Amino acid sequence: MKPWESRSLALWLTVVPMSVPVALAHDPVFGLGPHTLYKGGVEIHFGSHQEKAGDERATESEIQFKYGLTSDWVAGIGVPYVRSTGHRGSDSGRGPTSLSTKYRFWRNDLPGAQESSAVVARMILDDGDMGHGQAEREGNDYLLGLTYGYEGRKWYRWASLRRRFNGDAENGAARPDKWLADLVVGIRPIPTEYLEPDWVWMLELNYEHTEHITGAFNGSPQRIGGDQWFLSPGLMWTYRNFAVKAGVQLPVYDDLSGDQEADDYRALVELEWHL
Question: Residue 204: CB partners within 8 Å, gap ≥ 6?
């Protein structure tokens, strides 16, 4: 092979794989990760989330569209459909629309690995028919978050912190804000070749703090708020530009005020397609 032919082949092997849209959904299932799309990239995302606490069960199915404004900045919109059942009967309808953005402000490329951090903002509009925790509110809710991620050939780790600011209810009663924190470790048991089906297994520790407030809820004065901890196994499967993520949150500790029901479990399945 002539020298110029060798250089051309090396350039082709470098550039062509970079131009192929692959699934880079390397974020945890329940926690928050710094992953962003490439510039001009589109993500179609479908997820179904279910929670059960005592006799109450709520299922939220959401479709999201995300767009890569740059390689470090992504914006999205999501519309859910919610169904709830319990001792007071069942109800269903469209949930509140959410507008989100994520900006990756730091990236450190290492041999065979990458570290990065991002900030996240989300606005949950007051436009849905229902949505557990959203049905009787007035005004928008807001979420701000900070996340760090490490992605290696075999090992992954993530950490995130989020604060959700909730608007008041329609009757003027305060709705408690929330803090959420996550620590996640992931492992790829068998390193795969480029564009081969890929498995990553994850274990998350999720913490949720609801601020303590006293008010009239369900027609009677109550004090609500408290803490919940979850241990959450999950997995991520990717093939080219398609990804599937699934996991379950299992409660390991709770300290809730009053007669609040602790969650029995939370489960999530997500499908992502990058264009």
Answer: 28, 29, 30, 31, 182, 183, 184, 230, 231, 232, 233, 234, 247, 249
> What was the pLDDT predicted at 217?
56
Please give the Cα distance from 216 to 171 (Å, whole number). 10
Phi, psi of 48 (to 5 degrees): -130, 125
Per-residue confidence (pLDDT) for residue 91, from 0 to 100? 86
Alpha-carbon distance of 164 to 144, in angstroms, equals: 7
Neighbours of 29 (CB within 10 A): 25
Residue 255 exposure: Cα atoms within 13 Å on the Cβ side: 5
Beta pairing class for 265-274 and 198-217: unpaired
Task: Report yes or no: 139 and 126 within 8 Å, Cβ to Cβ.
Answer: yes
DSSP structure class, residue 9: H
- CATH H-level superfamily of 23-274: monomeric porin ompg (2.40.160.40)
Please count the residues of the chain: 275
* Rounded Cα gap, residues 150 and 107, in angstroms: 10
**Residue carrying structure tokens 């269903």:** 92
pLDDT for 122-139, tens place per residue? 999 988 776 444 446 667
Element (H, E) at 164: strand 155-165
Phi, psi of 13 (to 5 degrees): -65, -25
- Looking at per-residue confidence, does 90 or 108 come out higher? 108
Question: Whose CA is closest to 249, among 196, 203, 186, 183?
Answer: 203
Find, among 159, 125, 161, 160, the residue nearest to 142 by Cα.
125
State the pTM of this model. Answer: 0.86
Q: What is the pLDDT, as a whole number, of residue 11?
A: 35
